Amino acid sequence: MRRVPAMLCLMASVPCTALEVIRDAGGEPIAPYLMRLTPRAEALRPIRTPIARPYRSYSLIKHLPIRSPSLTPGLGEAREMPIRLLQPLFLVGVDPHSLQWLEANRERLKQVNAIGMLVQAETKHELNAVSEIAQGLPLILASGEAFAAEIGLRHYPVLITRKGIAP
Predict the structure, then answer these.
(1) pTM across the whole model
(2) Is residue 75 exposed (0-12), middle (13-18) or buried (19+ Cβ within 10 Å)?
């Protein structure tokens, strides 16, 4: 029969009410995120919360220019094919056809919670024009080359859903 040391038994019978940090390599205190298990005198003292870090906005401008050489503006074909996506995605450029398509389909894109991928843009002015028409739709800048190769895209603008591709 195996014997359990007496100190271990004693430790198991004493309720743990406070933890002492021996080493913290994370840089932020965890205390504001933990609930106290039992009320104690120190629980009445205010907990020091970390100073909030300034919000850093994501700037699309630093990714310009963005190009997708194998994709061109134009009318694509609707295709049903299962595509593994977490949510719908639309690809647009800054050409007149893409801007008209985005304006005409903006409400539908909002309803399906689509994320926009700007696959062709050269300047800040072009980026601003697309953002203005998108009116709050999330936009990212990225080359559409991977989509072109993976699902056989040749033209944009398109809406890509789990069911397939819709021009």
Answers:
(1) 0.63
(2) exposed
CATH class of 61-166: alpha beta
| Structural tokens at position 97 | 């056809």
The CA distance from 22 to 14, in Å, is 20
Does residue 101 contact residue 158 with C-beta atoms inside 8 Å?
A: no
For the chain, what are the domain ranges?
A: 61-166
Which tokens in the block code for residue 108?
């539908």
Answer for the pair 60, 124: CB distance below 8 angstroms, yes or no.
Answer: no
81-107 confidence digits (pLDDT tens): 888 888 999 999 999 999 999 999 999
C-alpha dihedral sign at 151, 153, 157, 158: negative
Q: In this structure, are strands 72-73 and 158-160 parallel, antiparallel, or unpaired? A: unpaired
CA distance 6 to 12: 10
Residues belonging to the chain: 167
Q: What whole-number distance in Å separates Cα of residue 42 and Cα of residue 27?
A: 23
Per DSSP, helices labelled H in 34-123 are 96-111
Residue 35: per-residue pLDDT: 47
